[in-house]
Amino acid sequence: MSGKFEPKTPVQLAPPKTDPISLEALAEANGEEGKKCYVAIKGIVYDVTGNKAYQPGGSYHVFAGKDASHALAKTSTKPEDVKPEWKHLDDKEKGVLNDWVTFFSKRYNVVGVVEGANNLEE
């Protein structure tokens, strides 16, 4: 579907990077104390620093510094759902997750890949 999930205002994105990002570096990028803010989906790391919703106190801060694949697929902001595993989910949840990938990829720069990620798209 053309135009699905298009941002309201066009976003100039840098070419996606494939740099390895360790789990420790991802966890550090939680937006606290002025740090960068990253969210990973299916092992791909997006820079969401400019979006206040992912910063401390924001409604999506629970995802900051983590791979939130499972929670996004389930449309959940429960901390216990914020984990990288998604391949066991049903087709509907996988579809929701793919919609999130599309949404993020049209708005946020890809800054790398989680080092050793075993949840990448096959």
Q: Approximately how much helix is present in the residues?
A: 10-25%
Show unreliable segments: none
What is the strand arrangement across the widest sheet?
A: 1-5-3-2-4
N-to-C span: 23 Å
State the shape: globular
Question: Helix- and strand-based class?
Answer: alpha/beta
Number of strands: 5
Q: What does the largest sheet look like? A: 5 strands, mixed
Treating each run of at least 4 consecutive H or I residues as one helix, how many helices?
3
Reading the helices and strands in chain order gives EHEEEHHE
Task: Report strand %.
Answer: 5-15%
- Give the radius of gyration: 14 Å
Mean pLDDT, rounded to whole units? Answer: 94
Explain the overall architecture:
The protein is α/β, with parallel strands linked by helices. It is built from 3 helices and 5 strands, in the order βαβββααβ. The chain has a 5-stranded mixed beta sheet. β2 (38-41) and β3 form a beta hairpin.
